Amino acid sequence: MAETEKLDGRREAGQRTRRRLLQAARELVAARGREGVTLRAITDVAGANVAAVSYHFGSTEELLRAIVEEALESLAQAQVDGLRLLAPGASPSAIAAAWARPVIAAACGPPSEAQALIRIAARAATDPSQDFRERVVAAATGAEPDLLAALRRALPHVPEDRLRFRIQCAGGILHFMASGAMRVDLERMSDEEVERLLVPAITGALAGGPA
């Protein structure tokens, strides 16, 4: 019994260290950008030793990738939650808003930890690691099954292959915004202002015509 408790204690301590490393990496990436974060800086902020990064993640680069992947998974879950709150007869506009709103909240407004991670994730398509690119895509598209289901109900006459194509087009709009590549200064706008501008465009892409 005592041995089991000791093992459980070590496991919990390990999980706490892992969480501290993730949080430290998030804070540093938000403040300095991915390229400005070092192993020593992460362990100093986390109050952990260098070996802990290798033990929990394998490398500093994999830790940085983990925070990006985690941010995308959290964002996709927020999209899923919003889509599942919609009424069965929700319009394409309501669907577009529910799907886009978490991305707008994370990517726009004053600089923040979430914004930094989302922009890094949006640029990860050029990452030299195919495995990481695939992981990013999987995390970023986690809400697509729920989005597709909502669109099937709203647009029952549209073939599924066209709906999937429209989702990719609408996703491109969100990706372009999240990467910070838009020439419009979204940081000076409230989430509500960005939503008023962006949701009609996304609705048009999903509906296949004027919003």
What report would you give on this structure?
The protein has helices at 2-32, 39-46, 50-57, 60-84, 92-107, 113-122, 130-140, 144-154, 160-178, 191-207. Helix 1 (2-32) crosses helix 4. The radius of gyration is 20 Å and the shape is elongated. The chain contains ten helices and no strands. The protein starts with a helix and ends with a helix. The chain has two domains: 1-58, Arc Repressor Mutant, subunit A (Orthogonal Bundle); 65-207. With 211 residues, it is an all-alpha fold. Helix content is 74%, strand content 0%.
Number of β-strand runs: 0
Q: How many structural domains can be distinguished in the coordinates?
A: 2
> DSSP strand (E) fraction?
under 5%
Spatial extent as radius of gyration: 20 Å
Which of globular, elongated, flat, extended, rod-shaped describes the shape? elongated
Helix content: over 70%
Give the termini distance in whole angstroms: 64 Å
Mean pLDDT: 84
Q: Strand pairing plus helix content: what structural class? A: mainly alpha
The tally of helices reads: 10
Low-confidence stretches: none
Order of helices and strands: HHHHHHHHHH
Largest sheet: none
Multimeric status of the protein: single chain
Top keywords for this entry?
211 residues; mainly alpha; Arc Repressor Mutant, subunit A; 2 domains; 74% helix
Annotate the secondary structure layout.
Elements: H1 2-32, H2 39-46, H3 50-57, H4 60-84, H5 92-107, H6 113-122, H7 130-140, H8 144-154, H9 160-178, H10 191-207
